[in-house]
Design brief:
- With 612 residues, this protein is α+β, with helices and mostly antiparallel strands.
- Helix content is 55%, strand content 10%.
- It is built from 28 helices and 16 strands.
- The strands form four sheets. It has a five-stranded antiparallel sheet, sandwiched between helices.
- Strand 1 and strand 2 (34-37) form a beta hairpin.
- The protein starts with 5 loop residues before the first helix and ends with a helix.
Length: 612
Amino acid sequence: MKRIPEETVEQIRSSVNIVEIVSQYVQLHKSGKNYFGLCPFHEEKTPSFSVTEEKQIFHCFSCHRGGNVFKFIMEIENISFPEAVIKVAELGGIDLPKSVTESNATAGSADTQVGQLRQIHSLAADLFHHILVNTEIGETALKYLHQRGLTDETIETFHLGYAPVQQVLLPFLEDRHFPRELLIRSGLFTENDAGQLYQRFKERVLFPIRDPQKRVIAFSGRLLKKDEKLPKYLNSPETLLFNKRKVLFNFDLAKSEIRQHGFAILFEGFMDVISAYQAGVQQGIASMGTSLTNEQIYLLERTTDRLCLCYDGDDPGQKATARALQLLQPLTKLELGVIPIPGKRDPDEYINQESPTAFVKLVKDGQQNQMSFWFSFLAANRNLTNENDQLAYISDILEKIATVASPVARDLYLGQLAKRFSLEKRSLAGQLHSLLQQRARQDFQQQKQQPALVVAKPAPAAKNYQRVEKAERLLLYRLLHSYDVRLKLRETPNFVFVHDQYQTIYLLAEGYFKRYDEYDPARFLDFLADEKLRQQMVELEVENHATVSSNEEIDDCIRLITQLSPLEEQLTALKQELETARRMNNQALVEKLTIKFVELLKQRQLKKSASF
């Protein structure tokens, strides 16, 4: 992989804002000087992921990952440093010379099994797309997509393809010398008893499935001709690239639109997503199964605060909407809504029969909250002039109102229900109160029976450093941020940090300041080659140090490190020996060590007195 010139790296780092780059992957909210969001590297319910704009670094207080903007992109995209530099430039709208981008575009992609699998899927997607749009074999499939209302531009955007009955993919990839074992692991082939490989997708329109970085990782194929013996849709099996629980169709194209509009739209099928995208509603996504998984929910929670369901308007579609709401509500903090499709049509039909403009207006003005949906859904197929149906409907609605957290919202819905049936609001409130008490008792019993499911994992405790190490960390922070402190240390004879990692950072900092006049935390991280040292520096930078220092503070740190550190180490070691002796019930050894411990404490006190 070709080395990117240092001046180019520096130009990119200084030209982008880490907040703007990270915001394209994580929903951030400002709190004080910093920005916070849900960590993209592990699942959590309470945000512990922090971005410090002033220092241009990120840090997660739970999983302890941190670094500058290049490190963030390396981690989240799983790419090398040169590739991350190019990606950051792309995200920041910075043009780079072709000599830089072309030399690193494919470098390293063939070095790993994952890289080779990505190549295979990219080549397969290109081949099937070519067959669809440029060959006679694909004419029938192309005609079908045109009949469904898709334009050539949309077909190109989603890189749709066609897998013919002919075995075209195997020789195409074998000519490029991919090993047989890798072809099997790609999931694009099946193997018969004789060991022969056949392409998995035949006579199907193919929808490439892409990860958030726009890389093809799998396919979903729709039968072109109805066959009762075969599934209408066939997905790739799970591979090193593809885990259906973690992937949302079209999230790669939709994520920026979701952030811009403030909500995502969940459709039932891929064609609904694509038709909506073509109509101008481009924040649509679809799951790879019947309902959203925890991983998919978390992906959305990092991106938005609101999710709207836009399923088919017929009875099965409405029942599917109801099931989805019931499943999602206890699992997510997302505000849930519904976009109902009039006339018992699906979104694709509505767009083609009405107009793209009508669908855009429906999405904008026709959204319902959960309770509005339940008010209409639970009334369906009931005769509300019949008393029995009325009572059943009121009972069901009260059950739904009882799940609403806001007392004000509950009161509003009670008022609507009372007005609809000319009832006393007070009597409905009494019944609702009984339901709320019942739910509270059920929740309490569930907590008693399944404590492991409801007890939150405690946050990691803050690191508790010994006195000498605290002084080392503070002094290291000060010397990096102050020329005067650096000068003072250079004039201190034989000064050495006690712990090796701090001494190493100190020596590297001296080299850094020979090249740069000012300290830049984000730039200094790239100056450190060792990952453990980088993490030490990130943690040091996010600690709460006072902005103003004093000569007394620096002198105290130096004195503690140079004079007291040997005694502190001896005292720490003696404490451990004492604990061991007490566990072994060795009273004679305990007395001996205690006398020695007291003597060391006296020596420390004398040194303290002498230093003042």
